[in-house]
Fold each of these.
Amino acid sequence: MTTRTIFADRRLHWAAGAILAIATVTLLVLAIFPWGALRSTIEGRLRDRFGQATMIGSIERLDTFSFDPTIRIRNVRIPQVEWAGRGDLARVEQADVTFHALPLLIGRFRPDSIRIRGMHLALVRAADKRENWSSGKGGGSGGSGARLTGLTVEDSTISYRDAKADRSFTAALSADTSRGLRLSGTGIVRGSPVKIAFTGTAIEGLGNRPWPFTAKIDGPALGMEARGTMDAPLDTHGMTLDLTARASDLKMLDGVIEAGLFGTQPVRLKAHVRRESPDWIITGLSGTIGGSDLTGRLDVKKRDGRTNLAGDVAFGTLNFDDLSTNSGLAKGRALERAIGPRLIPATRINIGKIDRTDGTITVSAKRIVDSSGPSTLTSLAGKVTMDRQLLLFSPLRIGLREGAITGSIRVDQRGGRPEPLVTIDLALRNSNVAAIAGNISAVEGRVDGRARLTGTGDTIREAVGRSSGKIGLFARDGSLPVKIAAMIGFDAGRALTADERKRAALRCMAIGLDVRNGVGRADPLLIDTSESQSRGEGTVSFPSEALAIRLTGAPKRDTVLRLPGSVSVTGSIRAPEIVVPREVKSAGNILKAIGRAISGKHEPVAGDANCAALSARVLGR
């Protein structure tokens, strides 16, 4: 069949004519369609969307022939869902909507301009994240940008109650060609009153050009201001803004941003923010938390129902007290008064509620200070990685006044564990006694250490209290007063007569704890000086950090007056108590020692310990 034959075929002519006729009729129907006939259909769609019977008083077409028709909708009512309380979710007295009819052929509704009068919305989010405006949990992600060319809103209000974030507000909403879009009202965030305001320029004539806006929250405990532009009017999926914030603490700020933040000292922050739905890019972050200053950046990406974080936070100066509220600090001081000072912190590490967040953030602090005096810690650097409830601090470096603590901490709460499994692997390198115990001038020496523990608990203190593993501490190449060295060797003669200024060499000190279910058994415990040697046995119990140690000692040379027996070390790691048994310091025991000295009967003296072997043993090298 030739081309001429094909075009001459009457069947083809009939088919083309039929298609053209159908298309023409379809367009004519769209142009003159009585949209009020769809009232019942629209009510059904809204019922399916909100789960409530929706009532529409009337729908009428205001023009007669157009592919951009205008319809008037009157007396719309959507009852409130039962769990959200009484009243209506939405009421609209009248709405005139102009829309493009042709996109309806492919299932898309594209409004062009909207004029609303008497709209009242009552939005509610429950503690379990149910939203009365959403058909499921979790809710929407903001406006998609309808690309409106006109918007007028009169006599309208919005109320919002959020039990999950502990916030609420009631505001008046208006929009016109002269003043643009405006929303203003009052509310409460975490029990603190606030005023809210939002302004945007008139959208008429903007088309798809950027739309400037300003949003403010102002109250005695919270203040935020965002100034920027949306990529198009009402398009919250794409916007750029500069944000400033102040709050009584990070938890108050979290009442707005919902990032899982915690209580701190007062906060002041600013940042540049870019929204590219569904992601957020935060740059130029800077500010203060109490007296601690910080800078940073953060990328927030949403994929498959999960949030992925990538960024870094750098503190110039960091005071850990700034990361707690005044009430939290007071509780900590009260607990310390009740149970005594503790070395292991009670930092909470349960991440059971962080089930949809992953990512990597680097954290650093150039200088660490302490509210109570000079800080043992001087700096901090590390990387925090979260992968489906597996939290890893690695590498981790904590600077001391001399030396550093390095290693990793692993928090594993995968598989629905009620408490995390915590693995601690830390090493202390090239430090000294003063850097660890404070400015104790009496004892000097280089110190290394190692801790490898695994246990479960909601806090680091609880996890160590249920842990098993090894702890080792080794000091070397130091010195101490001769008097103390003599006491270690139970040499009462030299302890009484030695020169206060004279010092003995600290050859080494080795402490190894074999930890089982939170109880560390000393193996070994030895102090070796140029004048004496002391050995110990006993336990250190966690989380109480209680000491139950028995020490014996001997001098390294014959002495005039050597006491027999032992001493006990009790109390806690931070507050040890030395108990000398009554029989050791009794007059009879002293007279016996004097008698042995007069008769020339001397007890065996101690030799030098193998410090290298002890170091390898307690440090696992």
Amino acid sequence: MSAKSPVRGGVESPSPGTSSDASAENGGAGAAPGGGTASTATGSAVTGAGAATGAGAVTATESQGVTPRTGKAPSSGRSALLVTAGILLSRLVGLLRQRVMAHYFGAGAMADVIAAAFRIGNITQNLLGEGTLSASFIPVYAKLRGGGQGREAARFAWASLGLLALGVGGVSVLGVLLAPWLSAGLAAGFDAARLARTTQIVRIVFPMTGLLVLSAWGLGVLNAHRRFFLPYAAPVVWSAVQIAALWGLGGWLGWRGEALAEALAWSALVGAGLQFGVLLPAARRLLSEVARGDEAARGAGEKAASAGSAGGAGEKAGDASEKPEGRLGLDNPNVREAARRLPGALLGRGVIQISGLVDTLLVSFLGTGANAVFGYAQTVYLLPMSLLGTGEAAVALPEMARETAEADRARRDAAIRARLGASLSRLSVLALPAMGALIALGPELITLLLQTGSFDREATGRVAPLVAAYGGALLGNASGRVLGTTCFALGDTKTPARLALVRVVVSTALSLVLMQGLSVLGVVLGAVIAGWVEALLLARRVRAEVGGLGLEAVRLGRVLALAGVSVSAGLGARWALPEGLTSRPLGAFLVLAAFGGAFLLAAPGLGLLNVRSLLRRR
């Protein structure tokens, strides 16, 4: 295959390589060093070792997330599109939730309480949520499926859910009991009244985040089957319940202040339960298909080996319907393997959590409204960050895990470099223009997304410098997500954990210095610089492991031209509009529409985006 391929996933990038298509001589599949699997795609054969032709083959194939007609998995570009679409939908509804919250709470004391309480309560989700499960659960589950052990994969998944439920239940109980001390320690700058209100909401938020962790298990199962849209769109339910509560109680019944804040927390708890309820049936159905497909494949093999074995095969296929639920499987070797991966993942997530909590603590000393504006700035920044970093990382993990199954080290490294280069190429095309928008057009973004009711023009002015500063971190943080995922695929959970610790030390040290003169902006700048330090160190580690980063795929000159044209169009619209109009939502929309229109026109012209390829299924 040539070094470069036509537009892939709508963004021009190199081919991710073909080493995952293992030859028949290699047995079709095998366990990868990083817990991934090799995927066979010779001719029209079904992808995945152990999948049978004939009876049951389609079920086995569909359960693995491949296209039954061709046996090939959907392209990574389309997978990234599905992730992006799901995240975009959930983020837009999340921004609507933030806008409604801003309307009722503004950037005052109660907004401080809500921001701090949700940050403290998120300890459970950040420790045991998607990032941890991606490093421990998904690789082991994918290895079992790729090895044709569908029944064992289902047992492992249900056992993991049981253990996870016990873990998050215990952490949630501790969080409720320790809420006064957690609030006092992590929001030490609050006065007594704000601390008491924070404690009350933390006691509701801890169980809520426990349910969100269980949703992350469902996300892990669906992602492993390449079902990307539903798990990333499911948080819409969580946000929608909160929006309904705020509109109903705040708008119709006139609730305000502490009563409305507590109602918001309870609605978030209900929404988390409904979100898990959306994902659980889909995950359950896939796990049942995996188990049945495994047994059907075994039955077909036994029939081919001996005509007299049909009865036994049917008996086994019938047993596949037994649900392996309720078994903790502490003696299960696959559970133990996932547990061995857990400390490194927990350390990495724990360090990141500490960093966020330290930021919350520092900002709590910077006056009324500081935590609120800090949280609002993160909300605006996390929209592009989630679309870029999270989307690419979610797609890259299973893809790279398959590449690590290649026995030939040189071919493995070349395939991973190509895959990484494709991801970084897509990131650069989208991240650099987005960085320009956050830095230069931040006021318009905030006006359109948040300015309403109690969130006035003065609040927009306080948040805008923070959004601009966060803009400088976008490419570094998004690239760091993908580079960290590459380490996970290679079976290395320790390096990301160590570098996360470096990030916390650098961020805290810089924040303590910079906040003296720059207030909240100093805390943000400390985090931005630390994020780039972590990304560069991760890049050095990955380069040493696989011999490069695939950066030759990044068309930097064209991407910079795209960013320049897009931002210039936005600035030109701001200059051309009547004075004062851009401070209102309509004017802000027109400025951002000019930016977006210029991007959509210039990107194809520069050969960086092909919408037809992006929408094509194959």
Amino acid sequence: MQSQKEQILRDVVTYALLIIAIVCLAGSAAVSLTSCSQKTVSEDAMTGYSGYTSKSTGPALSMSAAQHCPVPKSERSYALYNDGSEFSAEEYASIHEGGFKSPLYDPLSTFSIDVDTASYSNVRRFLTNGGMPPVDAVRIEEMINYFHYDYPQPKGEDPFSITMEMSQCPWNRDNMLVHVGLQGKRLNYKDVKPSNLVFLLDVSGSMGSRGKLPLVKESMEMLVRELGRNDRVSIVTYAGSAGLALPSTSARHRRTIIKALDRLEAGGSTAGGQGIELAYRVAWENLIPEGNNRVILCTDGDFNVGVSSTPELVRMIEEKRRAGIYLTICGFGMGNYKDEKMEAISNAGNGNFYYIDSRREAHKVFVQDMRANMFTLAKDVKIQVEFNPARVSQYRLVGYENRLLAAEDFNNDLKDAGEIGPGHSVTALYEIVPAGLGMGAQRVDPLKYQESEPVPELRNSNEILTIKFRYKNPEENRSRLITRVLDESSMEFGDTSDDFRFSAAVAGWGMLLRNSPYAERLTWGQIQSMAEESVGPDEMGYRAEFIKLVKTCRELNS
């Protein structure tokens, strides 16, 4: 009888929320969570939502909240679904896909690099559980950068090599696709700096399920077993309040650290801001000059006590990063996962962001790629591309929507940007429309007070674009510049490298997941074929796993 009452109550809550969402869509009512602004249900989300797991028993929908008060001047989307046990809500920052631009009016494309991979593993979690992901969970650049690419190691003084290729765009054969690969120098393990790590672990009640705190403890144990004798670990926990679970301890005392992890249990509310304050204080008190000083935050992001709004947390992290302490954020769990909050914090804190959905992913982040993820090769890495209007009519950056910078930010060394670890690679794709095919960008009237024509001496140039990179060494505050030029030397798509074709397949997959209008007539089957023909060496099986996920999408959309 009790279970029947609980089921009836769950159904009542589910359908009540559906009714509210429909009313909002009609524009006849405003839904306010804390006297904030209206939420509306997007048409795309209603027709393509994803939040079901294989055990879902109720309807699923996605809500988009314009100007929701914790996030000024931005939007937030919600993935709402009934997972069979309780009503769940996940939060994602809304993404507005970038369109085509004219190099005559917008000649510069400027953005911060991004080595985060959280979006890919989170999307994998949705698909593995039998549902399509919400569109705003899909950040295409993070999906592309999840994979390793066979870029050459740098040979000169600069810590990066730069690889560029150009060929036909697979989703629009009239256009071209430019592939840019940045490869960081691998770490010399003989010169590894000692680490001062602070594990900041969420042990609140929301972390009690199997895919949360138990997986956090396993993940941190994996990392501990990878540390050297000169490394140190502290453990800070937070629930209703923050506390020091383990003072700074040498990694030589591995058993002591693991026992402290084993003792952790979940319960209480979530004072995340207080935990961050304590973690940075502990990191500062044990700071290793010129060492690797880093806070590793493991949470579902559901902060609800004290400093908890996204802008408050971002401001706090921006203040802390000046101390030279880096931040790694690892998201765990489902149901109340706050992706939007964690991504914003990691971007503000000289950090990187991962989503751990399994022991296999934990092994990838904390064992296989540990040194790339836990050390910093260069900071404030920015890219600026100038297109030659004599050769390019329109261009579009694929992904990186929340990493865009103003053109003047490129030369501003006070402007924060992304970090890259040793051995990390960063890949960016541009879709370009060749000169003479003026389709894509929104037209504007000719300028009255200045000319908008290509430089006469470059009209016959074979240069497609000039790309510039700025970066700072970790201990420096003045940036260094690298410049390269891409000439008009394209090849047939089938003759390009495996990396070119595979990254194009991942980008196309992301566009279909986002219902992108730029996907043209691209199909799941074409993406699968593209990926199967470009797997290349795949020792860990990550590219093979990608093909399985594409097949899942075909089945779910058949």
Amino acid sequence: MTRAVLAASLVLLLGAPTARAAVPEFPQDLPGDVTASSVRSDPDTWLVGAKPGAEAERVAARFGAHHSGLGNYVVERAQARGFAHALEARGLLVYSQANTVLKSKQAVPDDPLSVPPNAWRSAVVSPATAPPPVTPESPLIALVDAAADPAHPEWAGSAFSTLPGTPVTNAHGTATAAVAAAPQNGVGILGVWPGARALNVPLATTPGVPEGGITCAASGEAIGKAVAAGAAVINMSYGSPSRCAAEWVQLYFAIAKGIIPVAAAGNEFQQGNPLEFPASLPHVVTVAATTPDGRSASFSNANAAVDLSAPGVGIMTAVPPALDTDGVQDGYQIMDGTSFSAPMVSAALAWVRAARPDLTPDRVVQAVRLTAKDVVSPDGQNRPGWDPLTGFGVLNIDNALAVPADKLPIQDPYEPNDNLVWVDGTAFGRASTPVWQGGKQVQVDALLDKQEDPVDVYRIIIPAKKSASIKVIPRFGDPSLEVFTTEAVSVNDLDGRVAKSRKVGSKKTEQVTVRNKGSKKRSYFIAVKPQGSSRYQERQYSLRVR
């Protein structure tokens, strides 16, 4: 989970409403719209998202749309409006947006700082700490990035590989992979988890598109390939100030499979400090950069999404010799940026997953971020706890390995369930398993976070002519309770809400009763949200249904 702020609902610009509107929390832009013309994007294509299924595929074929995974489609710009309207008329439209341009997060130019090659590794793990043995079953780190050079001498004897077919034209993919997994082989540097199973998933590039040719569609498609390859952790050292719905859907699909996504926070603090995506999406582990003396790097973005930080200044790493630009073409270069902080955390998460199989993926994330080492504030004061510059502090793998399980937050089940779209079948093509469908009482213990995980939605089935008694019991903080019908498209769709309970106070149980008056069983959606003005972001509660 991350401390992300969900974007405000966008205006629906697709014409008259139908029986089921598009999802309002997703982009709803078409060629010619003011919002669409304000972003950098591929001039020839558009992205349109549909509820996955055969009917959407038939509509897509009519408009020549290319399927890029789940319900994501890439279509020629001239066909986008017609394609979106056709999907909307059938109640299948999820989103539409420009095929926005993303960029790598390495660029902090002209920093002359030079440090010994492995000094950054000793800042995140003791050299005396032995990593887990690497086996074919070890957690796979998938690095979605520029194509890496698998022939670099750094990889001799390692488990590193890359998906073939993309030429190596940029040093970034090799550099990030080496930070994560460069083996102990007497050559070059040592990665965080030396010799870890690591897979470079090249981002397809489009000629004529700025910022290296990386588009929103390419990101979504590459994340899908990482999922298909069996990744345990997905590293993304790139981003954009524009949300990419194709990327969002693929990442949430990955999270539902127990995969941990990690993203670089961004290097634009001195250029306005914008929110970056995918780093600012909920449930993405967002990584900021620190200097060799453990301070926040001047370029590193700071916001509520930041979970923790790792060294990002003066990072000696491997690059393709032909692309080595420091004056000595030896295949190694000192680089700066949150791009190199993120793969340190990705490798750490894979390491902890291997070493602590008793922890669920979300509790692995908690072990890594909550045990980070506090960072001194820019004013020289040491203020323990989270801050927007460095999150919970600098990565410390030794602490993450040692923290007792009973000192970590409880498992947060059924994620991602931040809105109806992730639970009702709209995004993934199939509705989630109901937590209750009549009969004896069930209890779900779960967490909320005002920034990272602002809503929990659960599907229940109420039998015909029966009622459901629903309670939310606060354990920490103050949650609220709402219930929606299947006609609702969002937890903000008040027309689809059939019950609510909002008693202010952290010791007051929320309770409603919902009756299905129909002659057939019916699905309903329970939404639990944080409320109140507590200075704490987190909430813990028990949901009971009978």
